[in-house]
């Protein structure tokens, strides 16, 4: 083998080694996070002869028996890397009426709580209990449908929305209750945003195989 071929072979091997090394460094995990989200509720009943408990957690309940709703939002975040992070959240309620084609006809929203920007190093917890005057929302929705002679599906959404800024990343998340209005029976359903709650974040520019080698 000639000296020129040997030199070219050595350069080739060194180049491959540098690419592998660079790729390994770039794809080193920067941090990981875990999010735990739970929501629970109680229906506070009016005095009646049918239910032994004054508060229950049924998914369905005769609407005329409801006095109020206690909705709980629990949110926990843990980051493996301590740094300057921040989060901000708010809780809102929405009355939404829509037709049989699920087209929104009327919407009214209320800001129930908004928290200021919070800084944290690697973890935080939110635990909020919100009391909902069910009859206020239900009566308002009934009045709207009656005054304009409408036949619409109407729900009350109560949502905790949160934005988390973490190490050059941003997470938008929510927990939500959907509560039916204007019906003889009231249903309560819980929903969570579909996001990855247990995730590893890699160093910035991890999508580039060899930025330092390929730059030139």
Strand content bin: over 45%
Radius of gyration: 27 Å
Number of domains: 2
Low-confidence runs of at least 5 consecutive residues: 205-216
**What's the helix-strand series?**
HEEEEEEEEHEEEEH
> What average pLDDT do the residues reach?
85
Count all strands and give the number: 12
- Content-based structural category: alpha+beta
Tally of contiguous helical segments: 3
Helix content: 10-25%
Q: Note the quaternary state here.
A: single chain
The rounded distance between the terminal residues' Cα atoms is: 30 Å
Largest sheet: 7 strands, antiparallel
Shape call = elongated
Q: Summarize this, please?
A:
This protein is an alpha+beta fold and 216 residues long. It contains 3 helices and 12 strands. The longest helix has 24 residues, at 3-26.
Features of the shown structure:
elongated, 216 residues, alpha+beta, five-stranded antiparallel sheet, seven-stranded antiparallel sheet, single chain
Structure description:
- By secondary structure, the protein is of the alpha+beta class.
- It has two domains: 3-28 and 204-214; 32-201.
- It is built from three helices and twelve strands, in the order H-E-E-E-E-E-E-E-E-H-E-E-E-E-H.
- The protein has helices spanning 3-26, 134-147, 211-214; strands at 29-45, 55-56, 60-62, 66-79, 85-98, 104-114, 118-120, 123-132, 153-166, 169-181, 185-192, 198-202.
- The strands form two sheets. Strands 3, 5, 6, 7, 9, 10 and 11 form a seven-stranded antiparallel sheet that branches. Strands 1, 2, 4, 8 and 12 form a five-stranded antiparallel sheet that branches.
- Strand 10 (169-181) and strand 11 (185-192) form a beta hairpin.
- It is elongated, with a radius of gyration of 27 Å.
- The two termini are 30 Å apart.
């Amino acid at each position: 083998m000639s000296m020129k071929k040997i030199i070219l072979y050595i350069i080739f091997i060194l180049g491959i080694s540098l690419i592998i090394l660079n790729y390994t460094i770039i794809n080193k995990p920067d941090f990981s996070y875990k999010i735990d989200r739970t929501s629970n509720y109680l229906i506070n009943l009016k005095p009646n002869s049918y239910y032994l408990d004054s508060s229950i957690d049924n998914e369905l309940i005769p609407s005329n028996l409801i006095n109020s709703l206690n909705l709980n939002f629990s949110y926990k975040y843990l980051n493996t890397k301590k740094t300057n992070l921040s989060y901000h959240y708010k809780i809102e309620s929405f009355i939404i009426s829509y037709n049989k084609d699920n087209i929104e006809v009327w919407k009214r929203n209320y800001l129930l709580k908004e928290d200021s920007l919070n800084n944290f190093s690697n973890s935080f917890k939110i635990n909020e209990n919100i009391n909902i005057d069910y009859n206020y929302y239900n009566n308002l929705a009934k009045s709207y449908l009656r005054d304009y002679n409408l036949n619409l599906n109407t729900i009350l959404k109560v949502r905790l929305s949160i934005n988390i800024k973490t190490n050059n990343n941003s997470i938008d998340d929510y927990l939500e209750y959907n509560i039916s209005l204007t019906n003889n029976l009231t249903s309560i359903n819980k929903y969570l945003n579909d996001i990855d709650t247990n995730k590893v974040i890699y160093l910035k520019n991890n999508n580039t195989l060899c930025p330092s080698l390929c730059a030139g």
